[in-house]
Amino acid sequence: MNPTNEQAQACLRVCQMLSNGYRNIELFRFNPQTGIVFIFASEELQIIIPTNGIWRFLDETEF
Asked: Residue 12 CB: number of other CB atoms within 10 A?
């Protein structure tokens, strides 16, 4: 499974926003089984991007 076009574009926008805010991207992971992208930035921000490209912050209560 590959990322969708919407997902790939959202990844680019999110990474650019993080970079503009001088945030380090610690981990960028695409899970081929679920099709979800996970981004961990600056030791505190966790972002998921599903196949529809609508990204959101991952709340620690979801673990």
From this structure: 10
The span from the CA of 8 to the CA of 15, in Å, is: 11
Whether the predicted model's global pTM rises above the 0.85 cut: yes
CA torsion sign for 61, 33, 38, 27 is: positive
Of 62, 42, 35, the closest CA to residue 14 belongs to 42
Domain count for the chain: 1
As beta bridge partners, residue 30 has 37
pLDDT digits (tens, 9 = 90+) for 13-60: 999 999 999 999 999 999 999 999 999 999 889 999 999 999 999 986
C-alpha 34/C-alpha 29 separation (Å) is: 11
Residue 37's domain comprises 5-62
Cα separation of 17 and 15, whole Å? Answer: 5
